[in-house]
């Protein structure tokens, strides 16, 4: 203890002295006592003064907020085409290696609401532990094609796929879901199969690709992890980004790529900078879990099948989403609300006996309601309130109007891959959406018999939040010159390949503008 105070005094006199040495002795200060806290605050002041007086201000050519697929691919394209550019990437979460969800299934069984969620935040963004399904299509996953044109959107997605393959994704198979027999069978039952090519990296290979992307970037870009952008303003011809660490970044151009988890922050930036937005869509539904064999005819041939159904009763659009053969159902935390999602692995050693997929009902609101995300959050909160998180129910129990219990789940033939609370989804999901979901399960049963089995498991609630749509032009630039919004936070994309492609597109647009300026 005494030793550390001596060094502390030395630092007061010689503030430039190696701060690292002080860090090493930091645990000696009792941070819990008032005296300890005061010393900690004093230390922070010295540290900040020291840093700011020593560091000359760096003006970046481009500051990128968010290191998800959008941010990563914009940084990669910029550094590949113009290595001389000075680029900063600010990321609220950790570097890839530091991303660890504390849920271990033993000591910590459910979400404890970490300050920054390791599943959603950090290098790789929301996609880091995802199933890594890169769908190359304009039929779903976003509306990038509306901004850049259909052909170019596909070209950009193919370019992203090429890079992913170079970065270690090549062993993953590229599936084309255009099987004419399945397509016809679906059509005969009023189900519409959407066409796409999909590279399924799987969670494990996706991680390898991210490791390689980071290795390709780390010496060319200044990464600032655990650094959340708090505000963005425009002063003296530069974008000024103030981070929650107190650090201030200045850049000539700024790319916002904060994904779905940064949606609230994005809204506040648009309000402050008076960038027009609109919001009206939310998808609500359940995750369905069936034995692998129930869907194997479809998943063996197509892997990822996106099927759309229009309900007879309400004429609503319901779709399958994120199909995971041999996969697991997982929790997802969005802004503190626990919802459900699914993963699968490319490695056969990690296969389960089940397949899971989401059934989502699209809800489009009209005047005067604009808060579509709040509508979804309220429904998800209801399931969190009743079930303490995600609720699971057998399809048979739902149809009979009874809640599922632990005993009923255990006596079923489908073994759940997520520990969720047995309950009653009809107390959570509004009647209209629930009727739609039940109707589609019976429709799917005609194509994949036993989908409507009593033992089919339904997990709720799965919510697909859509970011409000930010008004951007064909360069994805806002009305503020030099400020771009890409990926899921723009409302333009909702998927890995569209978000990544938007990153490449914006980088190329910036490079074009730079060329024109010179
Ligand atoms: C469990 C799961 C599975 C999925 N599976 C698939 C799939 O198989 N296929 C598919 O196409 N899509 C999938 N998705 C969706 C896909 O991950 C996203 O569409 C994609 O990651 C969007 O990329 P993005 O760069 O726009 O945003 P994100 O990936 O969300 O990245 C945004 C980053 O910005 C950071 N950030 C947020 N706010 C701030 C701030 N204020 N300051 C600094 N940093 C900030 C976040 O920490 C995050 O790392 C999945 C999503 C989840 C959650």
From TrEMBL:
Residues 306-463 form the FAD-dependent protein C-terminal domain. InterPro entries: FAD-binding_protein, FAD-depend_C, FAD/NAD-bd_sf. It holds the Pfam family FAD-depend_C. PANTHER family: DEHYDROGENASE-RELATED. This is FAD-dependent protein C-terminal domain-containing protein. It comes from Faecalibaculum rodentium.
């Amino acid at each position: 203890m005494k030793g550390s105070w001596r060094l502390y005094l030395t630092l007061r006199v010689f503030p430039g002295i190696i701060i690292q040495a002080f860090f090493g002795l930091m645990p000696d200060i009792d941070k819990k006592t008032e005296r300890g806290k005061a010393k900690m605050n004093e230390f922070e002041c010295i540290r900040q003064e020291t840093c700011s007086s020593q560091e000359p201000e760096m003006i970046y050519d481009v500051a990128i907020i968010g290191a998800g697929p959008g941010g990563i691919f914009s940084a990669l394209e910029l550094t590949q085409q113009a290595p001389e550019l000075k680029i900063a990437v600010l990321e609220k979460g950790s570097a890839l290696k530091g991303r660890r969800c504390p849920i271990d299934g033993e000591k910590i069984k459910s979400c404890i609401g970490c300050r920054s969620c390791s599943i959603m935040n950090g290098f790789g963004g929301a996609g880091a532990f995802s199933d890594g399904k890169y769908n190359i299509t304009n039929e779903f996953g976003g509306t990038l094609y509306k901004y850049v044109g259909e052909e170019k959107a596909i070209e950009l997605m193919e370019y992203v796929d090429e890079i992913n393959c170079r970065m270690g994704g090549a062993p993953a198979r590229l599936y084309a879901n255009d099987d004419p027999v399945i397509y016809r069978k679906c059509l005969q039952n009023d189900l519409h199969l959407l066409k796409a090519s999909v590279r399924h990296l799987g969670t494990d290979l996706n991680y390898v690709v991210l490791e390689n992307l980071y290795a390709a970037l780390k010496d060319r870009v200044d990464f600032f992890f655990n650094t959340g952008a708090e505000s963005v303003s425009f002063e003296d011809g530069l974008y000024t980004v103030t981070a929650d660490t107190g650090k201030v970044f200045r850049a000539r151009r700024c790319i916002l790529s904060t994904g779905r988890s940064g949606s609230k922050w994005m809204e506040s930036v648009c309000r402050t900078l008076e960038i027009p937005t609109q919001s009206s869509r939310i998808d609500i539904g359940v995750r369905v879990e069936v034995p692998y064999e129930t869907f194997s005819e479809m998943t063996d041939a197509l892997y990822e099948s996106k099927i759309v159904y229009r309900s007879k009763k309400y004429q609503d659009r319901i779709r399958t989403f994120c199909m995971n053969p041999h996969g697991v159902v997982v929790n997802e935390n969005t802004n503190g609300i626990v919802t459900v999602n699914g993963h699968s692995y490319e490695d056969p050693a990690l296969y389960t006996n089940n397949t899971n997929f989401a059934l989502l009902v699209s809800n489009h609101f009209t005047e005067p309601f604009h808060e579509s995300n709040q509508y979804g959050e309220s429904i998800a909160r209801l399931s969190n309130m009743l079930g303490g998180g995600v609720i699971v129910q057998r399809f048979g129990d739902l149809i009979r109007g009874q809640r599922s219990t632990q005993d009923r789940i255990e006596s079923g033939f489908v073994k759940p891959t997520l520990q969720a609370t047995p309950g009653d989804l009809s107390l959570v999901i509004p009647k209209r959406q629930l009727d739609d979901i039940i109707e589609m399960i019976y429709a799917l049963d005609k194509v994949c018999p036993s989908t409507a089995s009593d033992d089919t498991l339904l997990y709720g609630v799965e919510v697909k939040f859509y970011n409000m749509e930010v008004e951007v032009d064909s360069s994805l630039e806002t009305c503020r010159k030099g400020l771009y919004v890409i990926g899921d936070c723009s409302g333009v994309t909702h998927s890995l390949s569209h978000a990544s492609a938007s990153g490449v597109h914006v980088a190329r647009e910036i490079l074009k503008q730079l060329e024109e300026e010179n």
